[in-house]
User: What shape does this take?
Amino acid sequence: MRFVVIIILLIATPIHGSSQTSYLERLNSAISKIKSNTKLEAKDICAAIPATQDEYILFYGVTNDGPDEKWFQALNDSIKNYRTLDHCVLIGYLNIAAFADGEYAESYFGGIGFFYAHNKSLFKKAYNALSPEAKKTLKFYMTGKKWEDAK
Assistant: This one.
């Protein structure tokens, strides 16, 4: 069902500068590397992190119950593993807060809470580089509150 929605979005949405196409290529490239057991570099992971709502829809589209689900989980795990090692991955990961929703948002914000609890100084350094939308969503961490308090 999600792939049908993605296909409709790809057909119905005008592609300016083919940004959706190039994102889908970057995402598929990362998934192909995972499938072939090729180590993902930080640049591969950074390129596969969605930067817009449209890219997020494509990113989330590989979480269905089909054969790409395990590759999505491996990619998601790579993002989590690299977020403390690479600034681009960390900023990309935190910027997802601007548009994460649904069941992905539940685990995403739980992961953000865990990350913040264990990496407060790194989180605070990265915060200033985030998009205004992500800052708005994550600002409660800067006040020392927990995600549960922000709801």
